[in-house]
């Protein structure tokens, strides 16, 4: 194995093994059936062998799957116990995390149940800043900020790099008969985030230079831009984190495969004092473990 499986994938396999069905596992984990199936598929990609096989309308674990489920349960028990014995004490109290709105809505909030299952006595508060790179609120314990990494006198650690590419709804592309060459994009309704910079950079990387971008809609929030793209209002610049779930579900498609690395990235930002707290270090460790799986998944796109 070149990478480690995610905790959620291990929990999905363990639940299917113990409860006997995808439906029962989904109910216990508070996920959809398709989400549980997807977790099992991702785990199979990691381990390199089949964990399940079809049986009538349901599934059964293979022999290797059964053995791996037993080891998964053991590993989860060790991780849970280790988390609860952080310095000899269970992690309790309150943790306040601020996350850039688009990432919070389309990615982070989809995974929080995994963290709270490991730390059930820790109260987690999630908020969003007015602008993605704002780290000025001293009441926040940890920021997941989107910026250039320049936050003086702060603990700063890059979480994940971002790749940018155009996204639109399938119906939008069908309505306009496709796009063809990137130069044709300037004649279509473009959706911008904060300003026109991302579009100008992407177009220039695709040989479309010195273009006058007239019209379009400029949004202050990635939530708005992506929601507009999903509903067919135009073409937006998406990324491998905020747009990933919508791409998986077919709500968005990529009219061009070309992507560029964003000059900005997502960073963990905190004060040097707060980052040493057990609840903050626990969240950072969990988040980085989750991100490693996500990064490998989106690198294959």
Automatic annotation (TrEMBL):
Entry keyword Transmembrane: no
Upper lineage: Bacteria, Pseudomonadati, Pseudomonadota, Gammaproteobacteria, Oceanospirillales
Top-level lineage group: Bacteria
KW Transcription (keyword) present: yes
Protein name: LysR family glycine cleavage system transcriptional activator
Segments forming domain HTH lysR-type: 5-62
Keywords: DNA-binding, Transcription, Transcription regulation
Similarity annotation: Belongs to the LysR transcriptional regulatory family.
One annotated GO molecular function: DNA-binding transcription factor activity
PROSITE patterns linked: HTH_LYSR
GO biological processes: DNA-templated transcription
Pfam families reported in the protein's UniProt record: HTH_1, LysR_substrate
